[in-house]
Amino acid sequence: MSDAVTHHKQRVPPFLRQLLAVSGIVLYMIGTGANIAFPAVLLEQLRQPNADIKLTTEHESWIASLLGLALISGIVTAPWSLQKLGRRTTNQLSCLPTLGGWALLAAARGPATLLTSRALQGFGMGLQAASAPVSIAEYSAPKHRGAFLATIAFSFATGMLVAHLFGTLLYWRQAGIACGAFYALSLILISLTPETPPYLASKGLYAECRKSFRWFRGYDYASEKELEVLLNSQKKQEIVKEMSKWVLYKSILRKPEFYKPTLIMMFMFILFQISGMTVVPSYTVPMMNEVTAASIDSYTSMLMVDVVRFITAVLACIVVNKLNRRTVLFLGIIITVISLFLTALLLYLRDFGYLPHDYKWTPVIPTLTYIFGKTLGILPIPWAIAGEIFPLAYRSLGSGISGMFLSIMFFVVVKTAPNSFASIGVSGTFCLYGAFTGICGVFLYYLLPETKGKTLYEIECYFKGVSSEMKIENTCEHERMLEVVKVEGG
């Protein structure tokens, strides 16, 4: 390695270049949070007597839940797009249907147009849900990766706050245009950054890979060494190019380093949805009306929830980077479960007249604690784990399969929420969410390893059931490289 390369200086530090790339992802994930939360203000405004579009209860539940079904189409498309078109192009293309969805929403004249706009948003969100952790992991250096992955949770919370704030201050059509602007800004930032180095290497574009890697990571000795490892691993692809795809995927499905992380991410995303992560922002106003017994203005209570979520998401970016993943996750689960059951208990006591009239607002306290708990642990950790737990060779396939559970549970939970609120009330619904959150937590307690501070090959060796000591590290790393070549190169 020449001194010219080793001591080459860049005017813009690598961290700022990585931050620029991640910022494009952050902006479209803010749009994702806005997509999820927007029904709360849209439906509230369309319930007014002078609304220009009239909706039935069935229309309302479909507008809130259709994202979940549309997500499936995006998630199914994402592995092919990420592999054939690349991370950068997939990120760019994902902004187009979401932009179109917001434009269509702003111009809607009936329920069918609103549903079409939500379908377009959901398709784009599906691409982004699969692409965001992959892109951030490949853009960023290992020392920054944890913090950058935690920005996904921050983006969700920011988008929900922004959607509710715009919806409170603006008419829903203008609010939709304002929310859609985040995707336009995201498209610009994504277009300013190069393709990720691992993707370029997997396609045999080694000169372009070197240029991209150095653009993101600089020219220091450690980075140059990592670059050579990446290139050398990809140059072995001719050895395995003739392997049948069907035979390859059958063998992958039997590998513990694939099916164990996939099972863990299934439970992670079920937990993510069953804890009410997307129900609360979609139905904040009616939920908080019942929690507060209408003693607090509906928009005020909605913004209270958003502010708590936003502040906690900022805290989570710090906590996730400092503490163990398991510690943060299970702390969040415990707080969430206790808060849900306590809120339900107070609501039952109030319904049966055991709570004095002057204290009828008290269920708000455990409800906000519930928002704190799930935002601290259940919101950020699944996305952080998704960027760490899969070996590079299986990342697209594993993310696609686990993402299907995210989409299906999104649709099921959000679609059934109105009927659940109507039949068993917020108190009964919270009991259900608390019980299922606890059950998922028990499974994850026994399944989820600690990944913080570990390299990908150490995590892979853990799932293979072999030691990660120095005497076998090279073997494990070599096998990982070959699997990367098989899937990414084939």
Automatic annotation (TrEMBL):
The record ties this protein, via Gene3D superfamilies, to: MFS general substrate transporter like domains (1.20.1250.20)
List, for all copies, the residue spans of the domain called Major facilitator superfamily (MFS) profile. Answer: 19-452
Entry's Gene Ontology molecular function annotations: transmembrane transporter activity
Q: Where is this protein localized, as stated in its record?
A: Cell membrane
Domain of life, source organism: Eukaryota
Transmembrane segments in this chain: where? 19-42, 62-82, 147-166, 172-193, 263-283, 303-321, 328-349, 361-385, 392-414, 420-448
Where does this protein chiefly localize? membrane
Q: Keywords for this entry?
A: Cell membrane, Glycoprotein, Membrane, Sugar transport, Transmembrane, Transmembrane helix, Transport
| Pfam families given in the database record | Sugar_tr
Q: What is the recorded membrane topology of this protein? A: Multi-pass membrane protein
Q: Does the keyword Membrane apply?
A: yes
One GO CC term, this protein: plasma membrane
Which PANTHER family does the record associate with it? Answer: MAJOR FACILITATOR SUPERFAMILY (MFS) PROFILE DOMAIN-CONTAINING PROTEIN (PTHR48021:SF68), PTHR48021
Q: What is this protein called?
A: Major facilitator superfamily (MFS) profile domain-containing protein
